[in-house]
Amino acid sequence: MPVEIGQEAPDFTLYNTEQKEISLKDLISKSNVVILFFPLAFTSVCTKELCSTRDDINQYEELNATIIAISIDSLFTLAKYREEQQLPFDLLSDFNKDISRKYDSLYELFPKFGLKGVTKRSAFVIDKQGIIKYKEILADPTKIPDFDKIKETLENCDK
Question: Which residues form the signal peptide (predicted)?
Answer without folding.
Answer: none
